[in-house]
Amino acid sequence: MAQKGQEKKFFSEDRQAARQPSMLNEGSFQDMLTLERRRAERSRKPFVLMLLSSDVLNGSTGKALFEASQALIPAIRETDLIGWYQMGDVLGIIFTEVGSDVLAVNVKALRDKMIAALQEGLGERKAANLTVSVHMFPENWGKPEHNEAADAKLYPDIEERVPARKRISQRVKRALDIVVSAVLLFLLLPLLGLISILIKLTSKGPVLFAQKRLGQFGAPFHCLKFRTMYLDCDSKIHKEFIEQFIAGIGKTDSVEKVPAAPVYKITNDPRVTPVGRFLRKTSLDELPQFWNVLRSDMSLVGPRPPLPYEFKIYDIWHRRRVVELKPGITGLWQVSGRSRTRFDDMVRLDLRYAQTWSLWLDIKILLATPWAVFSGSGAY
User: Fold this and answer.
1) What would the pLDDT profile of 58-75 be if each residue is shown by its tens digit?
2) Considering 61, 62, 167, 321, which has the largest number of Cβ atoms within 10 A of its Cβ?
3) Neighbour tally for 358: CB within 10 Å
């Protein structure tokens, strides 16, 4: 009777009999997960990914999970998707368009419902050998506080399904990061020392400024820069500016008139020292970030790492620039207008870079960066 009650809640018995769903293979399931993320970005209707793994040993994991799938099929809707998240090892279910109220309140109830279906279809002993985890997209939908780290389980196409040729290119990219950063840090030691002395002589405070930023998948790290501001400055000015910039409001400070195109940085920031203004104009303040590249927090080329409070007000599709790639010192938007690029356009450039990435593209961006720096166009 309990099974029939569950079936009636999701769809009628005659539709269930005609459905005869089939399991998606790993490639198809992960493709559908990627498409569901894109759909959710446009429709703003969240979804839930449920993953099941088995503690059964002796090579029987795949069989146990297939039996679990047969027990779960009657308890899911016609629009939901079931298949192999990892072939033979992890079973996945995508609950589509569940509504924000479900994410905020009823995710636990959804999980309990699936566990009940497993216990009824398999028996409590077999169901106890299964581990169930729930993953929500967007990750912070309905949460009172923002969780900085993205859930990598929602992005298997980025984490796991990398072609062998691309993996080799990524290793070459990492080797290039290490060699170029180490060589530049060594060659620029006299310049780094001179900048350190100028900062110390002209304002109080440390030479370096370690700012909390978000790397790939929202992992926090401390981004190093030469200090360009006076000590103990209030970040409220920048927070308000970032909110206006992301919203597309063309306000740069309290004095200047609204420009035709909003800029990414405050043009006349009173918190910046005279030496700091020169360092920002020439991007010399970012030289310590080569150390972040050596540590693998960043890459030479990639999206700029956002501040936590900046990421918090991103639209859903904006977050892809943080998830899909490791952040970089320079990137496509830096050589395509730098700070004069509108925020949405900047995100589109980062996403274009992610979609078309190659070693040759990195090299072209690196070669174009010195001109972007020395010309000073769009730098503040």
Assistant:
1) 667 888 898 999 999 888
2) 321
3) 12
